[in-house]
Amino acid sequence: MKEYTQVTMPNYSYVFNFESDFIHQKTRTWMQDNWTLGFYYVGIYMVLIFGGQHLMQNRPKFELRGVLVLWSTLLATFSIMGACRTVPEFLHTLTHHGLYHSVCIPSFIEQDKVSGFWTWMFVLSKLPELGDTIFIVLRKQPLIFLHWYHHITVLLYSWFSYTEYTASARWFIVMNYCVHSVMYSYYALRAMRYNPPRQIAMVITSLQLLQMVVGCAVNLWARQLLQQQAECHITPFNIKLSIAMYFSYFVLFARFFYKAYMSGVRRSKDRSAPVTAEYPLLKSKIQ
C-alpha cells in the first residue's frame, strides 16, 4: 500500500471509541478476501424480490406501516450520523489541501479514523438497504427497473471500490449520505401520515440528479489526471465503471423527473405522493 504524506485532519469535538479503534487495514483485507459475497447477496436479492412478487400475486398485501416508519427512521438517523461524521473531513480537505487531494488522495480512510469508520459503514449499509424492496413486494407496489438496478449496482460498486481505496469515493460517500439524510427523513414523515409539500420531493429528486452530474464530473477529471500521468489513487477500470453507473443513473432519473414533474400525465391520485429520484417507486409504498 502506498503511503502518502501525513495531512492535517479536522478537529472533531468528540471521537467515539468505535471510531478511534477503527483499523482500516483489517477491513480492507476482509473486503478483498470476501468481495465475491456481494454477488451472492445480489443473487439472493433477485430471487427474493421476483420470487416474492410471484408468491404475492394471489395474496392480500401487507400494510406494514409501523415497520416502515421504524425502517425509514433508522435509515434517516444512520444517514444523518454518517453525513455529520464525513462532511467535516470533506470540507477540511477541500479548504486545506485542495480539489486535487479530495479526488486523488484517499487520506479520508487511510489517515482519518472517523471518516474511515463511516466509509466502512457506508459500504456495509448497501446490504441492509436492499430491504427497501421487501416493503414494495409485500405491499404489492410496482417494482420498476430503476429501483433494483440502482440497489444492485451501488452495492457491487461500493464493495469493489473499497478494496481499491478509491480516492474519489470521498465525494460519492458524502453526497450519498447527505441526500439519504433528507430522503429517508421525508419517507419517514410520509409513513407517519404527515404531508410535506410536494416541492420537497422535487428538491430531493433535483439533488439526486445533481449528485449524478457531480459524480460524472469527478470521474472525468480523474481520468484526465491519469492521462496526464498525475498521481491519482483511482484505477482506469474503476473510472469506467463509475462513469457508466453515474451516467445510466442520470438518464433514468432524468426520465423519471420529466414524467413525474413535467409531462403532465400523472394521475390526480398520485399528486401528493413522494417522487424522489433514488427510489421513485416508493411514492406509492408509503401512501
Describe this structure in words.
The protein is mostly helical. It has 13 helices and no strands. α3 packs antiparallel against α9 and α4 packs antiparallel against α10.
Helicity, as a percent range:
over 70%
Low-confidence spans = 267-287
* Average pLDDT figure: 89
Roughly what fraction of the amino acids lie in strands?
under 5%
What is the helix/strand order? HHHHHHHHHHHHH
How many beta-strand runs?
0
Query: Can you tell me the overall shape?
Result: globular
In terms of structural class, how would the helical and strand content be classed?
mainly alpha
Gyration radius from CA atoms, angstroms: 20 Å
Head-to-tail CA distance between termini: 50 Å
| Number of discrete helical segments | 13
Largest sheet composition: none
Short description:
By secondary structure, this protein is mostly helical. It contains 13 helices and no strands.
What topology does this entry show?
Layout: H1 17-20, H2 24-34, H3 37-56, H4 65-96, H5 98-104, H6 107-110, H7 113-125, H8 132-138, H9 145-164, H10 169-191, H11 198-227, H12 236-262, H13 282-285
Keywords: Fatty acid biosynthesis, Fatty acid metabolism, Lipid biosynthesis, Lipid metabolism, Membrane, Transferase, Transmembrane, Transmembrane helix
GO molecular function: fatty acid elongase activity
Subcellular location: Membrane
